[in-house]
Amino acid sequence: ITGIYDEVCRLIKTKIATGVYEPSNSSYRSRWFMVIKKTNSTTTGTKLRIVHSLEPLNAVTIQHSGVPPYTDQIAEQFAARACGGILDLYVGYDERGLSESSRDFTTFQTPFGAHRLVTLPMGWTNSVPIFHDDVTHIL
């Protein structure tokens, strides 16, 4: 990550400042890496995303059933009504808190010491169904 080191450090500092990461004393360490984020034609420069490699955690996690909702019930609630809303799905996982007892399992090493996730980890086996449940509840 030599060529992007400054950008990676800036991204980590931003996540620390916004409360997505917090310091950790856990002996557990997960791996992480960077990927180039898709950008639209109006965006300039390279956008990076941190990806936490949580395969060891996924291997021992009891999977959420992830049963999708019965969409007819949701649609019926909005019949003949005007409905509007705004959801920020770009950082949606960062809005969902992670249980205090689970945070140590997400600990990873940064240039600023060991940190752990405070919010729902992207790449964790249960993140998608949990986030889906949250959005469905809102709707």
TrEMBL record:
Domain of life: Eukaryota
InterPro entries assigned: DNA/RNA_pol_sf (IPR043502), Rev_trsase/Diguanyl_cyclase (IPR043128), RNA-dir_DNA_polymerase (IPR053134)
SUPFAM superfamilies named among the record's database cross-references: DNA/RNA polymerases
PANTHER family membership: REVERSE TRANSCRIPTASE DOMAIN-CONTAINING PROTEIN, TRANSPOSON TY3-I GAG-POL POLYPROTEIN
Full protein name: Uncharacterized protein
Annotated source species: Heterobasidion irregulare (strain TC 32-1)
